[in-house]
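Discussion board: Methods & Data

I've been asked by a reviewer to show the raw model output for two of the constructs in my manuscript, not just the figures. I'm not sure how much to include, so I'm pasting the format here to get opinions. Each protein appears as its amino acid sequence followed by a line of discrete structure tokens. Is this the kind of thing reviewers expect to see in a supplement, or should I convert it first? Here is construct A:
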Amino acid sequence: MKDKIIFFGIILVLICGGGISAYGNEVDVDTTKHSYSYLVAKHDFYKMLYAGVPLIGAGLSVHSSNDNFRSFRNEYAKQYHTHYDDYLQYSPAAVMLAMKACGVKGRSSWGRMLVSDAFSVALMASVVNTLKHTVNEKRPDGSNLRSFPSGHTATAFMCATMLHKEYGHISPWISVGGYTIATVTGVSRILNNKHWICDVMVGAGIGIITTEIGYFLSDLIFRDKGLNKFELPHRYGRWHKPSFMGLYVGYNMSGSEFTTPYGRISTNLGVNMGLEGAYYFNPYIGIGARANFVDMPLKMNNEVLPHDIELNSACAGLYLSYPFSSLVQVNAKVLGGFNHYSQFTLADDYMLGGNNSGVFSAGLSLVLMSSRAFNLRFFCDYNNMKSFVRESSSNLHTFTAGSTLGVNF
């Protein structure tokens, strides 16, 4: 099963990477000086790689950790079961249609928009259903073999991308709102025990990419007909304010060991997932916060324990940025906050976890920015906190390496 997912994932990434999307059609240059075909050729290929492929690649990379991420759900929302995600997935498209019906001027005319969206829906449905019936991944709840990828998430991100392309020029918060709703839909599928995190991340990438291709195909047909071009400010020049919010995903590593009455205990490679965002006052300085959940397997005397240690952390502090160019930045952060460990019995009523502690965190990240919508950051964070072994005088030191796909605002 794992081999099937990796194989089809690689094929999908190669197809997407070799294709063309219409991401650059949100015109941010003087359109009187450049032809429409020039704008498409200038932006499309890079934008395809920038948004969809990293999501698919990240989803495939965490496939082996599906059970670790699912433990969060089982720990905090085991009885969670709702149906609102069945409707929420369509809400960005509903907003787009409502704005259009109210006369708000968007990117496309009614006809051009509907053709673009029809192409997007057909492509998304074809890719998702082909993968579902080929990979045959069992759902977390065991109900069927149609888990990979998440169709609800693909639909939600497809609709959010439609909204972004049609009305993202009005305000970045329209795009932020659409993608936030799409993210909530994906998280809800995990909480409802219908999908693994791998399914959701790959579904999000498919939703974005197929919409870009759908709009590209429509652009080939209509050319300039029914297209409203907007001369937008070049928001992301070198000295813009790099404010963002995004999904924080990584792996936790620690070399810390602690002594208990039953032997030496240490942590294995774990998973880390949460949200991170920052508001910048200028191109260099901002304030922000991170809320994340960590699951780390434990070893006792080199034998893996049946229980993982889980922690919930919330931090806030100073964010710094230096722009090397309009596309590349280096960010740093220094955060402080609060941490809570889950609790379990090791043996003979000897408890681990269940305690609270302060957290100090510092990190560096390489940030790639190319559009008004997205940024991609690769980070390495250091975290220092009190141990989950309560009587230990030593602290737990961890490093988190991963990536954040963020929305700019």
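Construct B, same format:
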Amino acid sequence: MATRDHDKYLTVKALSQYIRAKFDRDPYLQQVFVVGEISNYRKRPNTHQYFNLKDDNVQINAVMFKSAFNKVPFELEEGMKVYVRGRVQTYPARGTYQIIIDHLEPDGLGAFYLAFEQLKKKLQQAGWFDRPKREIPTFPKKIAVVTSPTGAVIRDIITTVQRRYPIVELVVYPTRVQGEEAVGEIQTAFEAIQARHDEYDTVIVARGGGSIEDLWCFNDEKVAEAIHNCSVPVISSIGHETDTTIADLVADLRAPTPTAAAEMAVPVLVDVLTTVNQWQERLIYAMTQRIGQSRKQLERYSQSYVLKQPDRLYQPFLQSLDQWQERLHRSQRQFLQNTRYTYQQVDQRLAGQTPKPRIEFHQHQLATQQERLHQRFGQRLLDWKKQRQSFEQLLEAHSPISIVQRGYAITEQADQIVHSVEAINANQPLTVRFIDGHVETTITEIITDHKEMQDE
């Protein structure tokens, strides 16, 4: 048998490491651009993502580490066609190769636009856009402003508010308005406003113009949720007039510019004072007219005969009162007469129908019945006594004791009285009872009127 040359055999691990080194050294595999459809995608929250890229009947394993996946602004979907950039390397533990994706874009629509449409559809279905919008208070006392503390936006808002309505108090919650950190700062600002929501009348969230990337923090679901959960009416002014963000759609009122947002939040104090003065003048004029009319009416009333001769008001009523009093007295007298006559008639009837004679008659009948009852009861009791004596004599005549006293005896067997010789058991003794005792006997022979029977 030939011997093997063991030196030319590689271990599985050594072969895998060699193949991986080949992949790592190949410059064409360090950055590849691939287009394909997403397959076998199941989102894993807050961690790395694993799926396949397929093209017709060919597929390759794909991996996106958490740091790269968090930069994708839209949601991946099964079957979505995407353009990816990454590097190819092997996975020695399984002996397979895979593409490590560091950048991903959708086919056709831009990544940011697709993410915007996905979130817009989600919040639309949740009813966040169609909920009843709250009215912006006409005369606010305190307004919260969520924006960058530097730049033209905050200056425009402050200048506009001071020019139009300087008596209102502005409280600025400084935040970043672009970048990854902006989302958390805006969310924190709204949480602070919500904690003191009873102090504020209106909230303005604003930012100047910029690219879609610059405005993207206002398309984040966390910012939309913060605006949606705010108890204070919110005015949103993000970007230019042609820019529309998720924050604009969720807010109670959208302004085309930060300056317009400030104008929507407060009235013009001069106009308010002018309107107040106009209403004051109208009120004074109306009150003057009303007082004049009331004075003239008072003068007319003071010249009325009612005030000069007030007794003329109630004189007709005094006459009517006298008439009614007279009618009342007549009716009272007539009622008393009728009542007295009725009473006399009833008294006469009662006198003729007194119950005393009837009571005496029934008492006499009762005494007679009681006497008859006593007589009948005595006779019945005497009859019962005679009947009892007759029963006692009859019972005494038929008593077994009387029979025994006349010379007869009672025969028993097994504690039973023997009535016939046919009921006697020849193997058992008989007991014969007399008036003064009993005797035990044995049977030697049983004789009947028809035949004799010998004892066995």
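Answer (T.O., handling editor elsewhere):
This is acceptable in a supplement if you add a one-line summary per construct. For B, something like: The chain is about 45% helix and 20% strand.
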